[in-house]
Amino acid sequence: MIEQSQRRVPVPVAVASIIVLVAAALPASTMFAGGASMVYGLIGVLLLLALAHGLWRGSGRARFWTTVFATAVVVYGVVAITTAGALGLLQIVGASVVVGLLLVPVSSRRWFHDLPARE
């Protein structure tokens, strides 16, 4: 058996990280409007990039904050569903998928709690 020095990122965590990276494109698009929205867009992009990096590295804090922000997006989207267009529905679905991928699979929970893999 080949011994590996580093753990591999589980597929659900990798997919959640990629979704968060894609979500960083939304605040990045507001940065080009100029003014105060540029500052908010930059803060949003940096926050999402930090969360994606933390998920990839197995940080429990990143998992917690990603779950909190994604849940807030879902709740806000459901409350504002009457004005939500296709982009709003895509955000709701994406945030729901991220929460599910971080909380449900055993491999995700094991990744963030640093438990040894079962043989």
What does this structure look like?
The model has no long low-confidence stretch (mean pLDDT 86). It is built from 6 helices and no strands. The relative contact order is 0.16. The protein is globular and about 55 Å long. The chain has helices spanning 11-23, 25-31, 36-57, 60-79, 86-103, 106-113. Helix 1 packs antiparallel against helix 3, helix 2 (25-31) packs antiparallel against helix 3 and helix 3 crosses helix 4. It starts with 10 loop residues before the first helix and ends in a 6-residue tail after the last helix. The protein has 119 residues and is mainly alpha-helical.
Summarize the structure.
With 119 residues, the protein is mainly alpha-helical. It contains 6 helices and no strands. Helix 1 packs antiparallel against helix 5, helix 2 runs antiparallel to helix 3 (36-57) and helix 4 (60-79) runs antiparallel to helix 5 (86-103).
